[in-house]
Amino acid sequence: MGAVKTKRMPRAVREQQMLDAAVQIFGQRGYIAASMDDIAELAGVSKPLVYLYLNSKDDLFTACIRREAQALFAAVQAGVRPGRSADRQLWDGLLAFFTHTAQHPDGWSVLHLQARTHGEAFAAEVTAVRADVVAFVTRLIAEAAREAHQDPQLPEHEVAGLAQALVGAAESLADWANATPRVTARQATATLMNFAWSGLGELMAGRRWSPPGV
C-alpha cells in the first residue's frame, strides 16, 4: 500500500498560525529579544518556512502590528450600536476596547509598547489606526454636544483635543488594567467614563475651568 497523504494546511491558515506565535513572542519578549527560531518553534514550523511566508523579521513584525491594529479597531466598531445615545455609544466602544486589550495582552503589548519604540515605520502603522480611533471618538463627542442642547457647537479644536485626551487616557488605563489583578474591562470602562464624561458634561453645560491669572 502506498503512503497515506496528509492534507496540506492552507497558506492563509498557516500564516495566521505563524502570526499568532509571533505576536506572543514579540509581546512577551520584545522585538529585540524575539528570535525567528523561537517563533518558528512555537508555530510548529521550520524557520525557512517562516521566511518563505513573511520574508524577514521586520516584515513579520509589521504584519503582526497590522493584524492586531485591525482587530482592535474592528472590535471597537463592532461594540458600538448605531442609534443609541452618544454616551452609550462611547461606553460600548470603550468596553469593547478594554475587553479586547484584556483578552489579547500580547497584541496590545505589540501595539502600544513594542511598535512605538522600534522604528518610525512600525510607529507609523500604529499611528494610522490610532487616527481612526480618534476620529471615531471625535464624532461621538460632537454628537454628545448636539444632544446636550446647551452647547451644540463646541469649537472644532476643543472637540479634537478632547478626543485625543480620551484616547490617550484609554491607552494608559489599558496598560494599568492589564497589569493590575482583578481589574475588569467593565471597571476600567466605568473609571474612564466617570472621569471623562462628567467633565465633558460640565463643558457642554458651559461651565469651563478658567486658569488663574498670573
Question: Could you give a quick summary of the protein structure above?
Answer:
By secondary structure, this protein is mostly helical.
Pairing-aware structural class of the strands and helices?
A: mainly alpha
CATH topology name of the domain at 61-204, in short, is Tetracycline Repressor, domain 2
Low-confidence stretches: 1-6
CATH class of the domain at 61-204: Mainly Alpha
Number of strands: 0
Mean pLDDT level: 85
Shape: elongated
| Biggest pleated sheet | none
The N- and C-terminal alpha carbons lie at a distance of: 93 Å
DSSP helix fraction:
over 70%
Looking at CATH, the homologous superfamily of the domain at 61-204 is: Tetracycline Repressor, domain 2
Q: If you compute it from the alpha carbons, what radius of gyration comes out, rounded to the nearest whole angstrom?
A: 21 Å
Level-2 CATH architecture of the domain at 61-204: Orthogonal Bundle
Summarize the helix and strand pattern as letters.
HHHHHHHHH
Strand content: under 5%
Secondary structure tally, helices: 9
